[in-house]
Amino acid sequence: MKILVAMSGGVDSSVVAHLLKEQGHDLVGVMMKLWVDPLAPPVRRAIPTKCCSIEHIERARSVCKTLGIPFYVHNLENEFKERVVDPFIQDYAEGKTPNPCIICNRTIKFGALLDLTSSLGCEVLATGHYARIEKNQDGVIRLLEAADAMKDQSYYLYALTQKQLARVMFPLGEMQKSEVYALAKRYRIRVPETYRESQDLCFFPEREPRAFLRRYIPGMRPGPIKHLDGRVLGEHEGVPLYTIGQRKGLRIGGLKIPLHVVSKVAETNTIIVAEGTEGMRTDIAMHDVTWISGFAPEDASHLAVRIRSTGPKLNGSLIKKGGHWGIVLDKGSRGISPGQAAVLYNGAEILGGGTIS
Questions:
Q1: What are the φ/ψ torsions at residue 41 (nearest 5 degrees)?
Q2: Which end of the chain is more exposed for a tag (fewer CB within 10 A), N or C?
Q3: Is 193 among the domain residues?
Q4: What is the pTM of this model?
Q5: Distance between start and end Cα atoms, the chain
């Protein structure tokens, strides 16, 4: 089979390429060149801990050379900036907390890169994602959590369609990370001593988005931090810099009971905080809802939902009112953030999800 392998210069994609070559497949290696913040401090841009650096490109090129397969760098800077980065900035400016990795997977990695797969005459796109794909007896493709729960990335793939999943493979989905590192050692994949897996957003060099947001949302200004009861407790540095559920960094002193952010009101430039269980909610409204199978689940009375990629699964029921989807949780939860994804599960299967309204 002729397969396009998405290369990143990291251990996972390098193992995928070696593994598929060992199985006898005809491979083409491709690395995406994505937009990286040109306004970041030069000293920050020089640190090769994110994707698309010269170091990453050379590592990917070296793997392909070792395997004797062609290697290409595919420039998707403009598409990435337009489809992923610009909406990210706009959402934060409006007081939301977006998840750009989900948009990137849907439109770039399994959108533009799948288009290239066809252009290069490949049948399938293989990536280093930790997730599993199965086809049931009816021919419907199911997306499942990875065998390694600590590395599972299926949350970020909930918006993929049957058409996309039919042309994708995740060779690492059944493996533990320790097995992948063992394969890397067997394949003699060079891992620099300074190597660190990228777990942060790739288009700015800092670990957190605060500095990036300051560079690209110039209208940010201080404003009041208010308690739910209306009391002004302090001053924030800019609404986009805070997240729902945040406890640390509020700089509100003299209080015995810890506070957390329960809402961000961009229109009035206000952060609302509360104590303990105050501000916890059981209702989640969603928009842009998609289903892996193409259809909503028949039994929606008791499902599990994640409202953050690393958060626990919460039990609840899926409802639809007036053409709008929502979730009612069995127990209240804080941290329900507009712009984040609510992803629905039936056991290990990802059913679909939507953006929290």
A1: -55, 135
A2: N
A3: no
A4: 0.91
A5: 43
